[in-house]
Amino acid sequence: MSQPISKEAIRKLALTQGFDLCAFTKPILSSEHRAQLDAWVSHGMHGEMGYMAEEVRLERRKEPESMLEGIQTVIALGMKHVPPPYSLEEGEDAKGSGAIAAYAHGDDYHDVMKKRLKAFARDLDTLLGPHDQRVYVDTAPVLEHALAERAGLGWQGKHTLTINREHGSYLMLGELFTTAEIEPDEPAEFHCGSCTACIDICPTRAIVAPFVVDARLCISYLTIEYRGFIPIGLRPMMGNRIYGCDDCQIVCPWNRKAEVIELDHLKPRDGNILPELAELFELDDEGFRERFRKSPIKRPGRAGLLRNVAIAMGNSGRGEHIPLLIKALNDSEPLIRGHAAWALARLCPDRQKGEIREALAYHSQHENDEEAGREFHLALKKIGESDS
Ligand code: SF4
Ligand code: SF4
């Protein structure tokens, strides 16, 4: 009779490869998680992440067992990251600076985790003998928070992220799917209780109900995934958040004890902690590529990031940004031109009204992008209204 596989031996391998958490489950989702996903997609809460709603992909997300022939086990893995090194107030008060989600302060965790997962997979082969296996990091078809919950790694908080009793929610998740049969762990118990801190603090009211985040309202989605003009009504609520948002995690009582940890590969880069908005806004394509090499912040591209920076400048109340915003009315990217126009109208101190109106009027005549043109029009209208 073959010996049962030692989970402790596997956990040890995971820790050796740089993971902090390792748990096991069957590749099956609960009916609750499936229903949650269906409802989220049918209400259009995935925004422009169209791949989430494609029928085939949606079905695959609901059936992790379809991701690998002969799959028996999902190994859910977690890696801690450094918590934000400032409080909610300190982050928001840093008006000339932009707030970046803590997980993105260092190198791109996807790359780091993928390397570790592959090394872990090789170690597993040696331990268990060859099995078919696949690794995933933040991959659309994998409902990773649901699998992590079933594996007991942590429960899904009301903000939908995974919370571990000991380590809180500053975690990055990855999965290894394998044909090896390993005894599942007990699912995680729910420990949010009656707390609603994350729901109450969300600047854009994106947590529309416990466990339901409407991506179309979520600053993480808007600043990273969304490629278009950000809805005007949401811009003032974004404050100085230029890449992601940690608010719902910062207020979570389970993160109170989150410790600052020493990390090798994911060490925060000083320049990514509350960087100056003006410095970022001056980046050209080459400068952007260089500044964010190997960083997740390159994801929205220069146009997306500078769009977010323009909004933060508009929300800063700081007139010193006006010259850079006027210069940006001539940028090659319509997204940047349009948001710069909005920011100018929002900042517009009385003594600079004439100068700003003139710049907007001049550039609006040469604007050939429809959406940017609309932004110029609205900005001029706003300044005009404040005259009367
Ligand atoms: S990340 Fe920010 S915007 Fe999104 S749900 Fe959390 S607090 Fe709200
Ligand atoms: S803030 Fe409260 S409700 Fe939200 S995830 Fe944390 S414990 Fe749960």
Helix content: 40-55%
Any ligands, ions or cofactors bound here, and which? iron/sulfur cluster
Biggest β-sheet description:
4 strands, antiparallel
- Number of contiguous helices: 16
Mean pLDDT: 93
Helix and strand sequence:
HEHHEHEHEHEEEHEEHEHHHHHHHH
Strand order of the largest sheet: 1-2-7-4
Shape descriptor: elongated
Q: How far from one another are the termini? A: 88 Å
Beta-strand content estimate: 5-15%
The count of β-strands is: 10
Backbone structural class: alpha+beta
Task: Provide an overview of this structure.
- With 388 residues, this protein is of the alpha+beta class.
- Among the domains are: 146 residues, no CATH class; 110 residues, Alpha Horseshoe (Leucine-rich Repeat Variant), CATH 1.25.10.
- It is built from 16 helices and ten strands.
- The strands form four sheets. A four-stranded antiparallel sheet has the order 1-2-7-4, with helices on both faces. Strands 3-10 form a two-stranded parallel ribbon. A two-stranded antiparallel ribbon has the order 5-6.
- Helix 1 packs antiparallel against helix 5 and helix 12 runs parallel beside helix 14.
- The longest helix has 20 residues.
- It starts with 6 loop residues before the first helix and ends with a helix.
- The structure holds iron/sulfur cluster (2 copies).
- One iron/sulfur cluster binds next to helix 7.
Summary keywords:
alpha+beta; four-stranded antiparallel β-sheet; binds iron/sulfur cluster; 41% helix; 16 helices; single chain; 388 residues; Leucine-rich Repeat Variant; two-stranded parallel ribbon
